[in-house]
Specification:
Two copies of one chain form a homodimer. Chain A has 246 residues and is α+β, with helices and mostly antiparallel strands. The first copy, chain A, has a domain of 164 residues: NADH Oxidase (3-Layer(aba) Sandwich), CATH 3.40.109.10. In chain A, helix 2 packs antiparallel against helix 6. Chain A starts with 20 loop residues before the first helix and ends with a helix. At the A-B interface, helix 1, strand 1, helix 4, helix 5 and strand 4 of A face helix 1, strand 1, helix 4, helix 5 and strand 4 of B.
């Protein structure tokens, strides 16, 4: 691992080799020193290692290779259940069944997930965030028996890398950094900022393979199309209502 | 910095000494190698260094000492504006004005903020997450001129530590880790898990100072009371509507 983790990359291809539970425990325990709102630690991590359970969980992640091949999947949840129970048992009335509390707990959970990622990679493990966690969040909640005020917000496939992953391109710093105020760039500038992305070899291949005329169309028409975003948004809001966060 | 960052702690007390912009830039650029959904990099970072702007921003954070004393405040935003503009300029129709897209961009932004935290601390800087960012998110959006599809979701006060911060207590690993399924603990177990927190010296002091009978009441009655959570939730949902994420 180089200074600042700048050579890191996502691993999707894992060796068929177990990750000991004791190692997972050390990583989680260390990651729990990451920042957390008001020291409330509004997260829970479900560790999935049993083959049958992994198969069922991988299905909710559309059977993507990283989910199928990883010996461990961690599902990191926004959790106000534990904290609220402690409040009630301490003669205090919790008021965390609302949207702010969901956002606060989500932030805590994502901070933890990123710290787990960093520490796991320092141990030589490979990690892949499964962005699909939000797509089937209700089904995942069922599989993992999540109670009210607990919602899955991040999932990590973890294992020993089978190969050295390719580092993909990133936007230049100036695209994402603004001094003092948000700077809405000119059209020409926006296109310049995305130039490296548009011209990156593998991206050009995706465009051709999908019969599109621009990389952006691969995102809007194939990978993250509006109709799907709208449908999943509705399902997510339903889940937040069901879990008492809305 | 020890192995795994397990001795880290939040810094709220900063030396009156500048953090060079070049250092901030190196940290941000390295942090931008952190995972991001579909490599879309759905975040922006607003760097606030000018004294007048810092004062105005600190006010939105209730003038907490860390916000007033830090030479730099970073406001990390969920940002689907830049990506959507690139789509439109590339003959693609973006469909990211919905709740899923807000949550996806929020996740990207929080991952980035945590990676910034880790790297800044490796450089010897101190950091303090300003959880207050959600409380006055609309006012912060105004101050920083945030356009549609851009919402502040994390804020970091950064500077050189003036003293060695105290490490606070954390829950034991078993409170937050679940094997295969969520384990809803017995009442007795919940109280046992929070025992160290209830008995931690400074926490016992807060209880006495606030005239409460339990630590949980400090959270429910003083720090994060229901009425405030409900009010901020409403304001946040209004902001998401205003910024076209809902």
């Amino acid at each position: 691992m180089d200074k600042y983790f700048s050579s890191r990359a996502t691993v999707r291809d894992f060796r068929n080799e177990d990750v000991p539970l004791s190692l997972i425990e050390s990583i989680l325990e260390a990651a729990m020193r990451a920042p957390t709102c008001g020291n409330m630690q509004l997260y829970s991590v479900i560790v999935t290692r049993e083959p049958e359970a992994r198969r069922a969980l991988a299905e909710t992640h559309f059977n993507q290779p990283a989910a199928i091949g990883a010996p461990v999947i961690l599902t990191i949840c926004a959790d106000f259940n534990r904290f609220s129970r402690w409040c009630r048992l301490s003669d205090a009335k919790p008021g965390y069944d609302n949207f702010l509390s969901f956002l606060t707990a989500t932030t805590d959970a994502v901070i933890l997930a990123q710290q787990i990622t960093t520490i796991a990679e320092m141990e030589g493990l490979g990690t892949c965030w499964l962005g699909t966690v939000t797509y089937n969040a209700a089904r995942i909640s069922e599989l993992l028996s999540l109670p009210d005020l607990v919602v899955p917000v991040a999932a990590l496939a973890i294992g020993w890398p089978a190969s050295t992953p390719e580092r993909c391109e990133r936007l230049p710093l100036e695209a994402c950094m603004h001094l003092e105020r948000y700077r809405d760039d000119s059209d020409a500038k926006v296109m310049e900022l995305f130039k490296a992305k548009d011209e990156f070899g593998p991206n050009a291949r995706f465009v051709a393979e999908n019969g599109k005329t621009s990389l952006a169309q691969v995102f809007t028409d194939v990978r993250y199309p509006e109709a799907m975003n709208v449908e999943v948004s509705k399902a997510l809001l339903d889940l937040l209502r069901d879990k008492k966060f809305l």
